[in-house]
Amino acid sequence: MTGASNPGGNPIFKSIDHIGIVVRNVEKTAANYADKFGIGPWTFYECGPGNIMDMKVKEKKCQYSFKIALVCLGETGIELIQPLDDRSIYADFLEKHGENLHHIGYVVEDYDKVLDFFENKKIKQLMSGNFFGHNKYTYLDTQTELKHIVSISKSDPGFFTFKENRFGIKKITHPLPSMVYPGQAIDELEIKPVFRRIGQVAFVVDDVDRMADTCVSGYGILPWRIWEFGPETVYDMTVGGKRQDYSMRLGISKIGSIDFEIIQPRDEKSIYYSYRRANGEGFHHLAYELENYSVTMDYLEKLSVKVSMSGMWFGKHTWVYMTTEKYLKHIAELNYTEPGFQYPAPVKYIG
Ligand SMILES: [Fe+2]
Protein backbone atom coordinates (compact mmCIF):
# COMPACT_ATOMS: atom_id res chain seq x y z
CA MET A 1 0.00 0.00 0.00
CA THR A 2 1.31 3.46 -0.83
CA GLY A 3 -0.17 6.82 0.01
CA ALA A 4 -0.41 10.10 -1.84
CA SER A 5 2.31 11.68 0.28
CA ASN A 6 4.85 9.12 -0.89
CA PRO A 7 3.93 8.48 -4.53
CA GLY A 8 5.41 5.36 -6.01
CA GLY A 9 6.15 3.91 -2.58
CA ASN A 10 9.90 4.48 -2.79
CA PRO A 11 11.17 4.47 0.76
CA ILE A 12 12.22 7.95 1.83
CA PHE A 13 14.92 6.56 4.11
CA LYS A 14 17.36 4.19 2.40
CA SER A 15 19.21 3.20 5.55
CA ILE A 16 20.30 4.44 8.96
CA ASP A 17 23.54 6.40 8.93
CA HIS A 18 23.79 7.12 12.65
CA ILE A 19 22.02 7.43 15.99
CA GLY A 20 22.31 10.79 17.78
CA ILE A 21 22.49 10.84 21.59
CA VAL A 22 22.44 14.06 23.63
CA VAL A 23 24.79 13.98 26.64
CA ARG A 24 26.17 16.38 29.25
CA ASN A 25 29.82 15.52 28.66
CA VAL A 26 31.05 13.96 25.40
CA GLU A 27 34.55 13.16 26.68
CA LYS A 28 33.28 11.30 29.74
CA THR A 29 30.57 9.39 27.86
CA ALA A 30 32.84 8.43 24.93
CA ALA A 31 35.45 7.20 27.45
CA ASN A 32 32.78 4.97 29.04
CA TYR A 33 31.84 3.52 25.63
CA ALA A 34 35.51 2.87 24.83
CA ASP A 35 36.93 1.78 28.19
CA LYS A 36 33.97 -0.28 29.41
CA PHE A 37 32.29 -1.46 26.18
CA GLY A 38 35.19 -1.54 23.71
CA ILE A 39 33.39 0.86 21.36
CA GLY A 40 35.80 3.29 19.70
CA PRO A 41 37.90 5.05 18.61
CA TRP A 42 36.00 8.32 18.91
CA THR A 43 36.72 11.46 16.95
CA PHE A 44 35.78 14.77 18.58
CA TYR A 45 34.77 18.06 16.97
CA GLU A 46 33.93 21.46 18.41
CA CYS A 47 31.13 22.97 16.33
CA GLY A 48 29.79 26.48 16.21
CA PRO A 49 29.75 29.75 14.25
CA GLY A 50 33.50 29.34 13.55
CA ASN A 51 33.02 26.28 11.35
CA ILE A 52 29.28 26.00 10.62
CA MET A 53 27.60 28.16 8.00
CA ASP A 54 23.91 29.01 7.45
CA MET A 55 22.94 28.11 11.02
CA LYS A 56 19.22 28.18 11.70
CA VAL A 57 16.98 27.14 14.59
CA LYS A 58 13.25 26.78 13.84
CA GLU A 59 13.92 28.24 10.36
CA LYS A 60 15.34 31.51 11.75
CA LYS A 61 18.99 32.55 11.70
CA CYS A 62 20.54 31.56 15.02
CA GLN A 63 24.07 30.70 16.10
CA TYR A 64 24.57 27.73 18.38
CA SER A 65 27.54 25.73 19.61
CA PHE A 66 28.07 22.11 20.58
CA LYS A 67 30.69 19.37 20.84
CA ILE A 68 30.36 15.99 19.16
CA ALA A 69 32.10 12.64 19.38
CA LEU A 70 31.66 10.13 16.55
CA VAL A 71 32.20 6.41 16.30
CA CYS A 72 31.24 3.61 13.93
CA LEU A 73 29.88 0.34 15.34
CA GLY A 74 29.28 -2.27 12.67
CA GLU A 75 27.71 -0.29 9.85
CA THR A 76 26.06 2.31 12.09
CA GLY A 77 27.45 5.56 13.45
CA ILE A 78 26.88 6.80 16.98
CA GLU A 79 27.04 10.55 17.52
CA LEU A 80 27.31 11.91 21.06
CA ILE A 81 26.31 15.58 21.27
CA GLN A 82 26.95 18.03 24.10
CA PRO A 83 25.25 21.43 23.77
CA LEU A 84 27.52 24.37 24.68
CA ASP A 85 24.77 26.99 24.94
CA ASP A 86 20.99 27.04 25.36
CA ARG A 87 20.09 27.87 21.75
CA SER A 88 20.23 24.52 19.96
CA ILE A 89 17.55 21.82 19.84
CA TYR A 90 20.08 19.65 21.72
CA ALA A 91 19.99 22.03 24.71
CA ASP A 92 16.21 22.08 24.58
CA PHE A 93 16.09 18.26 24.54
CA LEU A 94 18.62 17.94 27.39
CA GLU A 95 16.54 20.22 29.57
CA LYS A 96 13.28 18.39 28.85
CA HIS A 97 14.41 14.77 28.65
CA GLY A 98 17.92 14.58 30.10
CA GLU A 99 20.64 12.51 28.44
CA ASN A 100 19.02 10.14 25.96
CA LEU A 101 18.55 8.99 22.38
CA HIS A 102 17.80 12.14 20.37
CA HIS A 103 17.59 11.53 16.60
CA ILE A 104 18.19 9.13 13.75
CA GLY A 105 20.36 10.31 10.89
CA TYR A 106 19.06 8.69 7.70
CA VAL A 107 20.70 8.09 4.36
CA VAL A 108 18.51 9.57 1.62
CA GLU A 109 18.99 9.45 -2.13
CA ASP A 110 18.35 13.12 -2.84
CA TYR A 111 18.71 15.59 0.06
CA ASP A 112 16.94 18.50 -1.64
CA LYS A 113 14.04 16.32 -2.83
CA VAL A 114 13.57 14.95 0.69
CA LEU A 115 13.52 18.51 2.09
CA ASP A 116 10.75 19.31 -0.45
CA PHE A 117 8.93 16.13 0.59
CA PHE A 118 8.83 17.30 4.21
CA GLU A 119 7.87 20.84 3.22
CA ASN A 120 4.90 19.42 1.27
CA LYS A 121 3.90 17.50 4.39
CA LYS A 122 4.05 20.79 6.38
CA ILE A 123 6.71 19.28 8.63
CA LYS A 124 8.90 22.10 9.93
CA GLN A 125 12.69 22.26 10.02
CA LEU A 126 13.90 22.24 13.62
CA MET A 127 17.53 23.15 12.99
CA SER A 128 20.00 23.27 10.12
CA GLY A 129 23.52 24.24 9.15
CA ASN A 130 26.45 23.49 6.88
CA PHE A 131 29.55 22.12 8.55
CA PHE A 132 32.72 23.64 6.97
CA GLY A 133 30.59 24.32 3.90
CA HIS A 134 30.89 20.61 3.04
CA ASN A 135 28.16 18.92 5.06
CA LYS A 136 24.61 20.31 4.95
CA TYR A 137 22.29 18.97 7.60
CA THR A 138 18.66 19.46 8.61
CA TYR A 139 16.66 18.23 11.59
CA LEU A 140 12.94 17.75 10.97
CA ASP A 141 10.02 18.00 13.37
CA THR A 142 8.89 14.42 12.85
CA GLN A 143 8.23 13.71 16.54
CA THR A 144 4.42 13.61 16.11
CA GLU A 145 4.44 11.33 13.04
CA LEU A 146 7.48 9.14 13.64
CA LYS A 147 7.99 9.53 17.41
CA HIS A 148 11.56 10.72 16.91
CA ILE A 149 13.50 13.54 15.28
CA VAL A 150 14.72 12.78 11.76
CA SER A 151 18.05 14.17 10.56
CA ILE A 152 19.21 14.13 6.96
CA SER A 153 22.47 15.40 5.52
CA LYS A 154 24.41 15.82 2.32
CA SER A 155 28.17 15.53 2.44
CA ASP A 156 30.86 16.21 -0.12
CA PRO A 157 32.70 12.97 -0.96
CA GLY A 158 35.09 11.82 1.77
CA PHE A 159 33.87 14.42 4.25
CA PHE A 160 32.70 13.52 7.72
CA THR A 161 32.05 9.84 7.24
CA PHE A 162 31.43 7.61 10.24
CA LYS A 163 32.65 4.56 8.39
CA GLU A 164 36.24 5.83 8.26
CA ASN A 165 36.35 6.67 11.96
CA ARG A 166 36.75 3.10 13.13
CA PHE A 167 40.41 3.12 12.11
CA GLY A 168 41.23 5.88 14.56
CA ILE A 169 44.39 7.88 14.08
CA LYS A 170 45.51 5.59 11.28
CA LYS A 171 42.90 6.94 8.91
CA ILE A 172 41.39 10.28 9.77
CA THR A 173 39.47 11.94 7.01
CA HIS A 174 38.80 15.60 6.55
CA PRO A 175 38.06 17.55 8.69
CA LEU A 176 40.70 16.90 11.32
CA PRO A 177 39.17 16.20 14.70
CA SER A 178 40.20 18.15 17.79
CA MET A 179 40.84 14.86 19.60
CA VAL A 180 40.75 11.10 19.11
CA TYR A 181 40.07 8.64 21.93
CA PRO A 182 41.54 6.14 22.43
CA GLY A 183 44.62 6.93 20.37
CA GLN A 184 44.88 3.53 18.72
CA ALA A 185 42.67 1.25 16.66
CA ILE A 186 40.11 -0.57 18.80
CA ASP A 187 41.42 -4.01 17.76
CA GLU A 188 44.63 -3.23 19.64
CA LEU A 189 42.81 -2.53 22.89
CA GLU A 190 42.54 -4.97 25.73
CA ILE A 191 38.74 -4.64 25.95
CA LYS A 192 37.20 -6.11 22.83
CA PRO A 193 33.81 -4.80 21.71
CA VAL A 194 31.09 -6.00 24.08
CA PHE A 195 28.45 -5.05 21.52
CA ARG A 196 29.14 -5.97 17.89
CA ARG A 197 26.40 -4.22 15.98
CA ILE A 198 23.18 -2.23 16.44
CA GLY A 199 20.43 -4.60 15.34
CA GLN A 200 17.36 -2.59 16.20
CA VAL A 201 16.01 0.88 17.00
CA ALA A 202 12.83 0.83 19.10
CA PHE A 203 10.10 3.27 20.07
CA VAL A 204 7.27 3.31 22.59
CA VAL A 205 4.01 4.35 20.93
CA ASP A 206 0.34 4.66 21.91
CA ASP A 207 -1.05 2.84 18.87
CA VAL A 208 1.10 0.34 16.97
CA ASP A 209 -1.35 -0.07 14.08
CA ARG A 210 -1.77 3.65 13.50
CA MET A 211 2.00 4.23 13.64
CA ALA A 212 2.62 1.35 11.18
CA ASP A 213 -0.04 2.81 8.84
CA THR A 214 1.71 6.20 8.95
CA CYS A 215 5.09 4.59 8.21
CA VAL A 216 3.63 2.67 5.25
CA SER A 217 1.56 5.41 3.64
CA GLY A 218 3.77 8.38 4.47
CA TYR A 219 7.31 7.00 4.25
CA GLY A 220 7.29 3.68 2.39
CA ILE A 221 8.55 1.87 5.50
CA LEU A 222 7.07 -1.64 5.08
CA PRO A 223 6.02 -4.40 5.49
CA TRP A 224 5.07 -4.66 9.18
CA ARG A 225 4.57 -7.78 11.24
CA ILE A 226 2.50 -7.24 14.39
CA TRP A 227 2.50 -9.52 17.45
CA GLU A 228 0.79 -9.56 20.83
CA PHE A 229 2.98 -10.49 23.81
CA GLY A 230 1.68 -11.57 27.21
CA PRO A 231 1.84 -14.32 29.86
CA GLU A 232 0.25 -16.87 27.47
CA THR A 233 3.27 -16.84 25.14
CA VAL A 234 6.10 -15.29 27.19
CA TYR A 235 7.62 -17.23 30.12
CA ASP A 236 9.52 -16.06 33.19
CA MET A 237 8.84 -12.35 32.69
CA THR A 238 10.58 -10.01 35.13
CA VAL A 239 10.40 -6.29 35.85
CA GLY A 240 12.96 -4.64 38.16
CA GLY A 241 14.50 -8.01 39.04
CA LYS A 242 11.19 -9.52 40.25
CA ARG A 243 8.89 -12.02 38.57
CA GLN A 244 6.16 -9.90 36.94
CA ASP A 245 3.94 -10.51 33.91
CA TYR A 246 3.34 -7.69 31.41
CA SER A 247 1.78 -7.34 27.98
CA MET A 248 2.45 -5.38 24.82
CA ARG A 249 1.50 -5.12 21.15
CA LEU A 250 4.60 -4.88 18.99
CA GLY A 251 5.37 -4.20 15.33
CA ILE A 252 8.59 -4.77 13.40
CA SER A 253 9.69 -3.49 10.01
CA LYS A 254 13.14 -2.76 8.56
CA ILE A 255 15.11 0.28 7.44
CA GLY A 256 18.15 -0.91 5.50
CA SER A 257 19.61 -3.75 7.56
CA ILE A 258 18.27 -2.52 10.92
CA ASP A 259 14.99 -3.51 12.57
CA PHE A 260 12.56 -0.67 13.22
CA GLU A 261 10.46 -1.68 16.23
CA ILE A 262 7.38 -0.04 17.76
CA ILE A 263 5.91 -1.13 21.10
CA GLN A 264 2.53 -0.31 22.63
CA PRO A 265 2.25 -1.15 26.34
CA ARG A 266 -0.96 -3.09 27.12
CA ASP A 267 -0.84 -2.61 30.89
CA GLU A 268 0.90 -0.51 33.51
CA LYS A 269 3.46 -3.13 34.56
CA SER A 270 6.26 -2.79 31.99
CA ILE A 271 9.18 -0.36 31.67
CA TYR A 272 7.54 0.66 28.35
CA TYR A 273 4.61 2.03 30.33
CA SER A 274 6.74 3.90 32.87
CA TYR A 275 8.94 5.27 30.07
CA ARG A 276 5.85 6.45 28.18
CA ARG A 277 4.57 8.17 31.32
CA ALA A 278 7.87 9.94 31.96
CA ASN A 279 8.86 10.85 28.39
CA GLY A 280 5.81 10.62 26.15
CA GLU A 281 5.86 8.54 22.97
CA GLY A 282 9.37 8.21 21.63
CA PHE A 283 12.74 6.61 21.22
CA HIS A 284 13.11 3.83 23.83
CA HIS A 285 16.10 1.53 23.25
CA LEU A 286 18.72 0.13 20.91
CA ALA A 287 19.14 -3.64 20.61
CA TYR A 288 22.70 -4.85 20.17
CA GLU A 289 24.03 -8.01 18.58
CA LEU A 290 26.66 -9.85 20.57
CA GLU A 291 29.39 -12.36 19.98
CA ASN A 292 28.49 -14.35 23.10
CA TYR A 293 25.41 -13.71 25.25
CA SER A 294 26.50 -15.34 28.52
CA VAL A 295 30.04 -13.89 28.40
CA THR A 296 28.52 -10.43 27.84
CA MET A 297 26.01 -10.86 30.68
CA ASP A 298 28.80 -11.92 33.08
CA TYR A 299 30.84 -8.91 32.03
CA LEU A 300 27.91 -6.49 32.47
CA GLU A 301 27.29 -7.87 35.95
CA LYS A 302 30.83 -6.84 36.89
CA LEU A 303 29.96 -3.31 35.73
CA SER A 304 26.83 -3.41 37.97
CA VAL A 305 24.65 -3.15 34.87
CA LYS A 306 21.40 -4.91 35.79
CA VAL A 307 18.41 -6.41 33.99
CA SER A 308 15.49 -3.95 34.21
CA MET A 309 13.00 -6.19 32.35
CA SER A 310 13.10 -9.59 30.66
CA GLY A 311 11.02 -12.26 29.00
CA MET A 312 11.34 -15.54 27.12
CA TRP A 313 9.13 -16.01 24.09
CA PHE A 314 7.83 -19.63 24.05
CA GLY A 315 10.80 -20.45 26.28
CA LYS A 316 13.20 -20.08 23.35
CA HIS A 317 13.79 -16.43 22.56
CA THR A 318 15.05 -14.32 25.48
CA TRP A 319 15.20 -10.55 25.69
CA VAL A 320 16.73 -8.49 28.47
CA TYR A 321 16.72 -4.72 28.89
CA MET A 322 19.87 -3.56 30.64
CA THR A 323 20.40 -0.54 32.90
CA THR A 324 23.12 0.81 30.62
CA GLU A 325 21.86 4.41 30.93
CA LYS A 326 24.59 5.54 33.31
CA TYR A 327 27.34 4.56 30.83
CA LEU A 328 25.72 4.66 27.38
CA LYS A 329 22.94 7.22 28.00
CA HIS A 330 20.29 4.86 26.66
CA ILE A 331 18.70 1.49 27.41
CA ALA A 332 20.39 -1.44 25.65
CA GLU A 333 18.44 -4.58 24.78
CA LEU A 334 20.21 -7.93 24.36
CA ASN A 335 18.73 -11.12 22.93
CA TYR A 336 19.46 -14.80 23.07
CA THR A 337 17.72 -17.26 20.77
CA GLU A 338 17.85 -21.04 21.26
CA PRO A 339 18.65 -22.98 18.11
CA GLY A 340 15.53 -24.02 16.24
CA PHE A 341 13.36 -21.10 17.40
CA GLN A 342 10.78 -20.14 14.78
CA TYR A 343 8.96 -16.82 14.87
CA PRO A 344 5.27 -17.51 15.43
CA ALA A 345 2.83 -16.13 12.85
CA PRO A 346 2.07 -12.45 13.44
CA VAL A 347 -1.47 -11.46 14.45
CA LYS A 348 -1.47 -8.98 11.59
CA TYR A 349 0.52 -7.79 8.57
CA ILE A 350 0.47 -4.15 7.51
CA GLY A 351 1.83 -2.96 4.16
FE1 LIG B 1 13.56 -4.24 21.03
Care to describe what's here?
It is built from nine helices and 22 strands. By secondary structure, it is α+β, with helices and mostly antiparallel strands. The chain folds into two domains: 182 residues, 2,3-Dihydroxybiphenyl 1,2-Dioxygenase, domain 1, CATH 3.10.180; 154 residues, 2,3-Dihydroxybiphenyl 1,2-Dioxygenase, domain 1. The longest helix is centred in the first third of the chain and has 12 residues. The N and C termini lie close together (5 Å). Fe (ii) ion binds next to strand 12 and strand 18.
How would you concisely characterize the structure shown here?
With 351 residues, the chain is an alpha+beta fold. It has helices spanning 26-37, 89-97, 111-120, 143-146, 162-165, 208-219, 271-279, 293-302, 325-328; strands spanning 15-22, 42-47, 52-57, 60-61, 66-73, 76-83, 100-107, 125-131, 135-140, 149-155, 179-181, 197-204, 224-229, 234-239, 242-243, 248-255, 258-265, 282-289, 307-313, 317-322, 331-337, 348-350.
